[in-house]
Amino acid sequence: MNHRFLSLVGLAATMAFTGGCSVNKQTKATPVVEPVTATPAPAVTEPPVWAPKNHAFNPSKTRLHDLLHTKLRVSFDWEKQYLHGLAELTLQPYFYPQHQLVLDAKGFDIHSVNLMNGLDAKVLQYTYDGMKLTIDLGKPYTRNDKYTIEIDYTAKPNELAVGGSDAITQDKGLYFINPKGEEPNKPRQIWTQGETEASSAWFPTIDSPNERMTQELYITVDPKYTTLSNGTFVYSRKNANGTKTDYWKMEQPHAPYLTMMAIGKYAVVKDKWRNLEVNYYVEPAYEKTAKKIFGNTPEMLEFFSKKLGVDYPWSKYSQVVVRDFVSGAMENTSASTFMEDLQLNERELLDKHWDGIIAHELFHQWFGNYVTTESWANLPLNEAFANYSEYMWTEHKYGADEAAMHHLDELSQYLDEAETKREPLIRYRYADREDMFDSHSYAKGGRVLHMLRKYVGDEAFFASLNRYLTKNKFSDVEIAELRMAFEDTTGEDLMWFFDQWFMRAGHPELKVSHTYQNSLLKLQVWQQQDTLYQPVYRLPLNVAVWENGQKTEHRIDITKANQVFKLPATAEPQLVLFDSEQQLLGTVEHAKTTEELEFQFNNAKTLASKLEALEALGEELDQQRMLVLLQGALKDEFWGVRNLALDMAGRLPAKQAESLEPIVKKMAMSDKKGDVRAGAILLLSEWGDDAYTALYKTAMQDSSYKVAAAGILSYAMTGAPDINQRLATFEKESNEEIVLALASYYAVKGGPGKYDWFMKQMKNAKGTGLYYLLQSYGAFMAVNPEAYKPEAIAMLSELAQHHQIYYVRMAAFQTLMVHSERPEIIELLKEIRANEQDKRLLELYNQVSL
């Protein structure tokens, strides 16, 4: 599962939004631990806001029965959004004799339950509470007995209470998209999403990750629709009533939450890896670009298979794009599902690719599907590996700097979350299993695996993963099995590593200093983290020292809260680079002179070191030295450095930055990276010289949507008399970058005449684009009271109450707040708040005075 998909494309839109509720965020200082004395009693300090919470213990689910096989026959009532199902489940007691079977079955109408003996059916007694189906088997069965239950039922997913998380915004399992065909710009589709335990919202099962089954799925639909499910497509049969039934068979066992189906009008673009079928299911409009979107999949299959020494284990690999998906993507066995954002046209492909999310879901086919976490407490055994595959693939395909940029983003995500939440990676104490889908399980987990790789070495790392996969294939695991795979491979007891990084909360917060005297470099390291809640870490890492232009690497092993290392040095070091591989998950405070930072920028090869030095020098250098530094940084080979240099140039007064203008102008016209061209154009507009107007006009016609959007925003700031005329030529454009650029300007300068344009865009926008568009529309409503119309309020009310994505509902609520002085809006906001079930939104809404 990949949930990290919020785009930066709407940044400009957020600048215009002024309305909405405000949330007060309190931060608490880390307590000071005083020495214990008999009297007086020490003051009781509150724990830090991020301290691990003492929730109830969540064990793995006890296995009373083993679900061996599931056979489903399903058809649909599009009008009512029901699924009619006939399920045959083959089971046997796990160990102890059983006379009763309890199945997860959420929100069904149960029509009959029978014990099957061939074609003979025996009616069984059952009770049903809307969530659990309890069946009296009629007699005890032992672990040597298999039996088959047939259940005739109707699933009604829309009648279930809504739940979800940041990663998976809804959990009703089965989704009908535009079921009545009333939305002209949206296809009719049906798709499923089983993680965490939502498969039981569309078929009865034992909905737990430590269960595994083979399956057959018979899907009856109108012949105009294409179907996809797990495993192999066996046949399609025409029915007398004009429908067809597609038969999919999964012959290898997998967890119930990985069962999927997708139904819609798709173009199926065929590819292959070795002799394996690899297909891409996209909407017909994207048939020509499907291979450019997903086309690296065969290479990924080869790369991961060779790295792991375990060939891709399933009978096919398909990838399908669906509308209104409730997450970024989902790794259903042999058939991954993706959000619609992946569908790109030729021009959009110039600016972006989705290799990260594609690699993430593919790697899950090994880590998560082939070997599955036994409980949600062990979720990083799925997600940390899938997350780390993004780094591995990026390093392989796009180089070390691109991979390092990805790694820095991962570290930033985790550290941001750590401001308010620090939990062990493997945590059995959580309030809700959905809480596991956070930046700990993903970003921190991936970085921890990278540190493990750096510690044991590449050969041992991948040999250990091979052992882990081979030994535990088609089974469920917990963290100890991963540790033992590494220990059995390396011969080393790694409890210390797994304990501090997987089983303990937090991260190291280091302060480092160095001095040189008498041919000796003294390096002092303090671990400053609050050890009441976090460990004193053992940290094996490298320190690089440059003397007279020569680099020497030293290996140190930090084991104490305060530790001094003495390293040989024949001359005063030009630079001491702590954690020279930049692999540590944590924070490091290491004071350096401006000369050392300049040397670091020019000589350290790791991207993190260059960016760190450049950022720090922005606070230290005088104007002239800063300009010289930026002249070099703006020409750096890697676009990430050039982007940061543009940002830093933007912090300088325009007059002081005159010497950079020729470089920035050239970047705006010809940099090979669209992001950099766009950034350079926006910087020129901030400097505000009318001489760039022609450049903005050219940029608006750039092949890159990012650059064109930057051109629109920049030209809009010139005050030229033909702004509205020029911008109007883009109003039929549907690209998100262009729409949000226009919305940013129209929000404050468009006037009431842009009401219809905003309404059209909000009807067509999706996901993150709609989120940002709503913020601009809030500003538009604030500036243009004429926009307060029943149609607009009805649309915002519908979005705030019924949109599937929680943050879109929030944005619509905020937009309505622009008119919170009106009694009817106050009542509407109260109604929205009263009907909202998502705890994340309720926490925000309850802080608003209405």
TrEMBL record:
<feature type="domain" description="Peptidase M1 membrane alanine aminopeptidase">
    <location>
        <begin position="296"/>
        <end position="501"/>
    </location>
</feature>
<dbReference type="GO" id="GO:0016020">
    <property type="term" value="C:membrane"/>
</dbReference>
<dbReference type="InterPro" id="IPR042097">
    <property type="entry name" value="Aminopeptidase_N-like_N_sf"/>
</dbReference>
<keyword id="KW-0862">Zinc</keyword>
<dbReference type="InterPro" id="IPR014782">
    <property type="entry name" value="Peptidase_M1_dom"/>
</dbReference>
<keyword id="KW-0378">Hydrolase</keyword>
<dbReference type="GO" id="GO:0008270">
    <property type="term" value="F:zinc ion binding"/>
</dbReference>
<dbReference type="InterPro" id="IPR001930">
    <property type="entry name" value="Peptidase_M1"/>
</dbReference>
<dbReference type="Pfam" id="PF01433">
    <property type="entry name" value="Peptidase_M1"/>
</dbReference>
<keyword id="KW-0482">Metalloprotease</keyword>
<dbReference type="GO" id="GO:0043171">
    <property type="term" value="P:peptide catabolic process"/>
</dbReference>
<dbReference type="GO" id="GO:0005737">
    <property type="term" value="C:cytoplasm"/>
</dbReference>
<feature type="domain" description="Aminopeptidase N-like N-terminal">
    <location>
        <begin position="69"/>
        <end position="258"/>
    </location>
</feature>
<dbReference type="GO" id="GO:0042277">
    <property type="term" value="F:peptide binding"/>
</dbReference>
<dbReference type="InterPro" id="IPR027268">
    <property type="entry name" value="Peptidase_M4/M1_CTD_sf"/>
</dbReference>
<keyword id="KW-0645">Protease</keyword>
<dbReference type="InterPro" id="IPR045357">
    <property type="entry name" value="Aminopeptidase_N-like_N"/>
</dbReference>
<comment type="similarity">
    <text>Belongs to the peptidase M1 family.</text>
</comment>
<dbReference type="InterPro" id="IPR016024">
    <property type="entry name" value="ARM-type_fold"/>
</dbReference>
<dbReference type="InterPro" id="IPR050344">
    <property type="entry name" value="Peptidase_M1_aminopeptidases"/>
</dbReference>
<keyword id="KW-0479">Metal-binding</keyword>
<keyword id="KW-0031">Aminopeptidase</keyword>
<dbReference type="GO" id="GO:0005615">
    <property type="term" value="C:extracellular space"/>
</dbReference>
<dbReference type="InterPro" id="IPR011989">
    <property type="entry name" value="ARM-like"/>
</dbReference>
<protein>
    <recommendedName>
        <fullName>Aminopeptidase N</fullName>
        <ecNumber>3.4.11.2</ecNumber>
    </recommendedName>
</protein>
<dbReference type="Pfam" id="PF17900">
    <property type="entry name" value="Peptidase_M1_N"/>
</dbReference>
<dbReference type="GO" id="GO:0016285">
    <property type="term" value="F:alanyl aminopeptidase activity"/>
</dbReference>
<dbReference type="GO" id="GO:0070006">
    <property type="term" value="F:metalloaminopeptidase activity"/>
</dbReference>
<dbReference type="GO" id="GO:0006508">
    <property type="term" value="P:proteolysis"/>
</dbReference>
